[in-house]
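**User:** Hello, beginner here. Are you able to go through the protein record under this note? It all follows right here:
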Amino acid sequence: MLVWERPEPPDRPVLGPLSRERIVRAAIGLADADGLEAVSLRKVAAALEVGPMRLYGYIATKEELLDLMVDAVHAEIRPTGDGWREALRSLAEATRQAVQRHEWLADLIGGRPQLGPNTLACGEAVAAAMGGVDLDAAVPAISAVNAYVIGAVRREITERRAERATGMDKEQWQATFGPYLQRTFATGRFPALATVVRDGPHPDADQTFRTGLDFLLDGIGARISS
């Protein structure tokens, strides 16, 4: 066939633009919807409608992707406030709110320090607010608040996951197991615990978090003052 008669080849698909930011946003979207088990380079590539091999030019491993996801969320954690107490409170509240928006974050915080730019900026803001406090008190104070927040948010997320797994919310769980506790306490074997359960306060998650944080900050304040 002469060129004038030969049909033109079909258009080749134009490769969409790609960047680490787009990859990380897609991965966070998958994790927010279905948890970390939904995140893999192959699944992220599918969400972006590109071949998996294209991602390897930007991210070498899944571990790198998870590090980038954690750092991206730390852009949402910006401690503010005048003085060390308000900065530490802001750090705790902002971290908890970030975990509530991104449940999977509870599984990745803690352990070795994250070294991404957003995480370092968060640490810089807190360290700057502690500038008037001796380092011998400032460093363990920051560590104590971080440890408290990590433990508190993991407990909350574990409760949320248990509700989904069992189909029972907190009130339904209490109604199911309440009679057993009443029978157990009636034996007299656990008098102190029975008093706590019967007569103690039963705050909600927000109150529990903030009250515990107040206890911790009061203790830090007493140590700094001394």
